[in-house]
Amino acid sequence: MNVLTSNFDTYAKGFLGTVELTVYSSALALLLGFVMASFRVAPVGSLRAFGTVWVAVLRNTPLTLLFFAVLLGLPRFGLVLPFQVFAVLALGCYTSAFICEALRSGINTVPKGQGEAARSLGMTFAQTLTLVVLPQAFRSVIPPVGSTLIALAKNSAIAGAFSVTELLGTYKTLSELGYNIVWTFIWIAVGYLIITLTISALFNLMERHWGVVR
Amino acid sequence: MTVALPTADSGSPHHAPRESNALYDIPGPRTRHRHRIYGLISTAVLLALIGWILYLLFDTGQFTATKWTPFEYKGIQELLLRGLGNTLKAFGIAAVLSLVLGALLATGRLSDHAPVRWLSTLIVEFFRAMPVLVMIFFIFVALKVQPLPALVAGLTLYNGSVLAEVFRSGVNAVERGQGEAAFALGMRKTQVMSYVLVPQAARAMLPAIISQLVVALKDTSLGYLITYEEFLHAGKLIASNLDYDLPFIPVVMVISPIYIGMCMLLSWFAHWVARRQRRNPRTEAVDIAPPEPGTLLPGGNPPAAPRG
Questions:
Q1: Any chain B CB within 8 A of the CB of A114?
Q2: What is the model's pLDDT at position A148?
Q3: What positions does the domain ABC transmembrane type-1 occupy (chain A) (predicted)?
Q4: Which of B60, B252, B305 faces A69 most closely, judged by CB atoms?
Q5: For residues B290 and A98, what is the distance between their CA atoms, to the nearest angstrom?
Q6: Which of A32, A39, A187, B241 is the most exposed place for a label (fewest CB within 10 A)?
Q7: Domains of chain A
Q8: Three-state secondary-structure class, residue B28
């Protein structure tokens, strides 16, 4: 117990680091995922191809390899940014592939007739999309997006091993100070649980509000 | 940047993609024409992007001979091969052990004895909710285990727990009448499971199991972080060698396609099995959702979305 109380600052810093990483990466992943999903359902062949390649490659890339390439590789490429920005970039791009697939399958759950009905009422493409298709897609997409973001929060642990300030990385500081390593890890685990449970509770709430009744 | 000439892929956006039928009508001649123009523009932009990246690579001297000579040496090739072998070794052991642990935990969760059920539920939920890396580090740092066993143990605990859920949902997805009929014939629970439910569930579960193995294969690269001498570790050794002018980017360019290729092959195999199963009338009734990361929150189990 005293591992936590006497090192509250270290833990809090790590915890906030993980939260920040998760929030920024989630924002990037949602944005990129949305762009890629719209590419993948676009009527333009080359955009569809780009979206497909993006998803296929990133989904099959080990995250450690991506971190390795981005955090250690890009600087030699002439691109120098803070490690945390690189980590957000890697995590966001990686997760965007999963978000894209979730959104795409969400759009596909909307029955064809909905779009046809909208068009036969004389709605424009923008109206069909924003008033009819997307609201329905959004509702069925809440749970898979939620579990993808939970996965993101857990994956952010890898950033710690690449010397980005985050929760898992705190073990190093504390073990150098000679604290009980088992308790150190127990409190790290608790920290992660708090984060994943919060995301999960948030998405459960959202689902209760807007989810599809099946 | 000069506008690129149209290539084969920009010339055929004749109809909207098959899946998203709610979004588009079948385009008429004018829309097709417009789509072709969009196609040209986006192809040009994408080619410009690729060109810019290539320019950056050349500009920073990534294709100079000194950066690529190391790959001609036998020692370097052997180092990489050994790394690849170690990656596959960790993957193989972790895959087998995960399947065994998954089967055990699933049996526990389906047990008629409440304490067994509770215990396995607790284990499954806890290990699904933890980041794999935290477990691997815990085993490596706190329990002072060697890198390979630590990596394998971490992967086994995580993937075994996820697979347990796959197995359980597979058995539960078999039509209820099947189990009832078997009980009505006087079979005992073990017999019902092993003769009736599991064989039917196994076929349907196969794609989800293989998808989870892709996750395990990807996660073997975490071994790099605990100094297990796997593929990425071998790459790092070469990349940070001053004698070879620190060939970091070349190493990434050699290692990534191999890593991604292996995972893609396995993913593609899962996909292929799933497609074959869908055509098979015997497994049509049972459909297993892909596993998802756990959160320890009861009742809030959303479907789909794999973890990486």
A1: yes
A2: 94
A3: 15-203
A4: B252
A5: 13
A6: B241
A7: 2-210 (1.10.3720.10)
A8: coil
